[in-house]
Each structure stands twice: as C-alpha cells, then as structure tokens.
Design goal:
By secondary structure, the protein is an alpha/beta fold. It contains 13 helices and seven strands.
C-alpha cells in the first residue's frame, strides 16, 4: 500500500507543482486586476468585461456622480463629457458593458441605488439583437457588487475563465509579456466620466460630430460591401420576432420603479443597427407601457441605417450618430 501511494505521489507531484506555479503566476500577473490596489483601471486585455472594469473604477472614486449611461458597446459612442455640456448640473459616469441585456441594466441601476447615488439623469441604450436575448441573467464574470455573488465565487470565475481557453497569448500575460499578447488593447477610459476610448477634452467634444468619410475610409467600406460583409438589406422593412418574455417585462417594471424612486430624467433609446430590423411592435407596446414618451425608437429603415458608411464594422455605428441621437432626444424633450 505504501509503495502504491508513493508511486501515486511521484505521478501527481509534477501536476501539483505545475498547478501551483500557474496560481502564483496568475496572482502575480493579475490578468483581471482582481488583486490590484490601483484607483484607475483601463481596458487592457480584450477578454476583460467593461462592466467589471467600470464597476472597479466607480468603487475606487470619490466623485459624487448623479448621472449615468447604460447599455452595450454601442452606448460607448455616447460621450458623458458632452452630455455634461448639454444637461445642467450633471456629473456623468459611463456604466456600459460590451454586451448588455435588460437584466444587466436593472442590476446596475439597483447597485447604484444601493450605493446611495442620485440617479438624476439616465441614458439607456437598448439593442434589437442582444438586449432581450435569453432571459436577462448576469454572468459570474460580472462584478460581484453588481451580481450580488460572493467575492470568492467572482474571483474563481475569472480564474476558470482565464485557464479554460488557455493559449500562447495568455502564457505571455502570465510571464509578464502582456504587451506582446494578441489580447493587448490598452484602450483608455476617461478618468472622470469613464468614457471609452478617449480622454475628454475641449477638442474631443468639438470633434464629436465629425463623420469619418474620407476616401480611404469609403474605399474600405466599399470593399466590405463587395465582399458581402456589409450585406444587402431587405427592401421591405423586416420586423424582429417578439423577444420580451414575462421575466424580462418584470425586469423592465423594476427598472422604471428605480427611475421613479429617484425622479430621474431618463431617455431610453432603441439603437439603429445595420441589419435595419425594426423592433417588434408587440415588444414596443410593452416598452411604451413603462417608458411612455421617454422611449425613442431609431430601429428599422431611416436616414441613419440607410447609409452604410455609418457602420465601419457592421456591428457598431460611428460616434457622431450618438451625438445626433442625443441632440435629437434632448431637443424633443425641451419642445414638449
């Protein structure tokens, strides 16, 4: 028996040593910044969730925000610093995620409420393709303060995620060569508004309405169209199938309850996507039931979606479109 256990020990010892080394390197490289004492986090690696990074930034700041931008990566085209020039006494924080469902929007609002933030102004981007996909549940990789899971479960989920799809690029990160990794993006988040991929300044705000339309850019889009990547859309308006489930409607109801509790000045925007699919009419009735005239639908065929040069990667639209949308909804409310 002793000889058997001895052989088993020698067999598993290299595995234990390798596992221990992996843990040590993981803690040292901290690829999700779960053990960092930093007060400002950037989007350094492509696998990191914007929700998680943004929550870390929010929890580490002493700025008393009273206004928030919520939604998917499409909402990253909304500039908090620009909104502060348009809405008096507003202090915006950009609290988006790469892919955000309705459950994520609710969870963030409930988190902000629990943290004692005043929800004075709220901008929410809804998408026709992802917002109501599934049942609106969160993932264990989202920040534990938002999901209400344990800190241990949250950090373990990151550990499992990192090693589940382990490759040479992640090995570079573990060995301190993260800047050479294919995952390295190192995109800035504004230190005050948490706006994505730019640091707010007078020049940034001045150029917010700039539409990229030079010859090189147009040739790129034309090439994507010729290859079929930017495919031809239906001539007749196509509608989405019903998406909003009973559970998701309940989440919408809870969202409006939080907004009413804070007497929020809110704007709910259905985004204009390249596929030109119109939001389902029955789903639209549900949204109007709760959000009323604060709902603005830019889905389907319109002047934005007809122009293929507005969509550099098919999934997102140029940032100036968000400026047009924001100006439109703010002017609409002022005229009522």
């Amino acid at each position: 028996m002793f000889q058997y256990l001895k052989k088993m020990w020698y067999f598993f010892l290299p595995i234990f040593l390798l596992f221990g080394l992996a843990i040590i390197l993981y803690l040292k490289s901290d690829p999700f910044f779960d053990f960092s004492s930093s007060k400002k986090f950037r989007w350094v690696y492509s696998y990191q969730r914007l929700n998680d990074i943004s929550t870390k930034n929010l929890l580490s700041t002493k700025i008393n925000y009273n206004s928030f931008i919520l939604g998917s990566s499409r909402s990253c085209g909304v500039y908090g610093c620009y909104l502060e020039t348009k809405i008096p006494d507003s202090k915006f924080f950009h609290f988006a995620d790469w892919v955000e469902n309705i459950g994520g929007v609710l969870a963030k609002l409930q988190f902000l409420d629990s943290q004692g933030y005043q929800l004075k102004n709220i901008i929410i981007y809804l998408d026709t393709d992802k917002t109501f996909e599934g049942e609106g549940s969160l993932t264990t990789e989202d920040h534990y303060e938002v999901t209400k899971q344990s800190k241990v479960a949250y950090k373990f989920a990151h550990f499992v995620s990192f090693f589940s799809f382990f490759n040479l690029e992640k090995f570079k990160i573990l060995t301190g060569k993260g800047e050479e990794s294919g995952y390295y993006v190192n995109q800035p988040l504004d230190t005050l508004t948490n706006d994505y991929n730019h640091i707010c300044s007078a020049d940034v705000i001045k150029n917010y309405g700039f539409a990229q339309n030079d010859e090189v850019f147009r040739n790129k889009i034309d090439s994507l169209k010729s290859s079929g990547f930017l495919y031809s859309r239906p001539v007749i308006v196509a509608y989405n199938k019903p998406q909003i489930s009973v559970e998701e409607e309940e989440r919408i109801k809870k969202i409006i309850e939080v907004l009413k509790k804070h007497n929020s000045n809110y704007y709910i925007v259905i985004t204009p996507l390249f596929d030109q699919r119109k939001f389902n009419s029955e789903d639209l009735k549900i949204l109007k039931k709760y959000f009323g005239k604060r709902l603005f639908d830019f889905s389907g065929k319109n002047s934005i979606t007809e122009n293929i040069y507005n969509y550099p990667d098919r999934l997102h639209f140029q940032n100036y479109i968000s400026k047009q949308i924001i100006d439109s909804v703010l002017n609409d409310q002022r005229n009522k």
